[in-house]
Amino acid sequence: NETTHTNFKGRIARFQKWLNDNGYQGKDIHSIKKKTITNYLNFVLSNSKPRNRDNTRVDLSGLFQVLFDNEIINENIVSSIPILGSKPEKNRPFTSTQQKDLLDYMDKNNPKLALYVRFVSFTFLREVEVNRIKIKDIHLLDKTIYNKTKTGFKIKIIPDLLAEYLPDISN
């Protein structure tokens, strides 16, 4: 996956920068101890959330596993560092009254945003999927949206709740 590879490269580059900034520039890989990794992970945690720290730990463990598999180091010192685990913050849903008030406000002050919110809410598409929709993908007569995905196409039925807000695009 391209995103995974990019994230991995970014995390390793940040680790290298941190090592250089903390006196490890030009030093042998064997000078990196478990305490070094723990200090770096604590640094990551101090600037972000536990999930990012754990994802960084996974990427570093992968790097050290490759070094171990290629007999460059004697053990993967990262694998023994515990995962913190994180409890994601639960979003409190809006009440029906709040939803109606928000949509009324958007209808009056920003109708395009209101339509966007309805697309996400009523079609259960992700924001990025809604962003990719083109006019040619919307078929009002059969009330469908052809949505391009990573693996092909997804056909979504346009609910009546959304259809009544769609502008006439027949021209």
Features:
single chain; 171 residues; mainly alpha; 3-stranded antiparallel sheet; elongated
Category by helix and strand content: mainly alpha
**Radius of gyration using CA atoms only:** 24 Å
Strand order of the largest sheet: 1-2-3
Largest sheet: 3 strands, antiparallel
Low-confidence stretches: none
Order of helices and strands: HHHHHHEEEH
State the shape: elongated
Task: Describe the 3D structure.
The chain is mainly α and 171 residues long. The chain is 53% helix and 7% strand. The protein has seven helices and three strands, in the order ααααααβββα. It has helices at residues 2-21, 34-47, 50-69, 96-109, 111-123, 127-132, 160-163, and strands at residues 138-139, 144-148, 153-157. Strands 1-2-3 form a three-stranded antiparallel beta sheet. A hairpin with a 4-residue loop joins strand 2 and strand 3. Helix 2 packs antiparallel against helix 3 (50-69) and helix 4 (96-109) crosses helix 5 (111-123). The radius of gyration is 24 Å and the shape is elongated.
